[in-house]
Amino acid sequence: MLRGATVIALAAILLAAASVASASPVKRTSADRAPFSTKGGSSTDGDSSFSGDADQHGGTGGHLPGSSLNVQRVGKLELTGPFGGVEAGQIADLSVYKDFAYLNSWTTETCDRGGTFVADIRDPKRPKEVGFIPALADNYHNEGAHVISVSTRSFTGDLLAVNNEICTGKDPARGGGFDLYDVTDPTNPKTLVQGFGDFGGEGKMTGNDTQSKEYHSVFLWKDDGNVYLVASDDEELHDVDIFDVSNPRNPKPVGEYDMAALFPQILETPAPNGNLVLNHDMVVKEIGGRDVLLDSYWDAGYLLIDIENPAKPAYIGDNDFGLTDPLFPGISPPEGNAHEAEFSFDNQYFLAADEDFNPYRADKFFVDDQERPAEEVGGGQSAASLPDQTLSGKVVYGGYGCPGRPDRAAEGGRLHGRTARHSAG
Question: What CATH architecture does domain 7-356 belong to?
Answer without folding.
Answer: 6 Propeller (2.120)
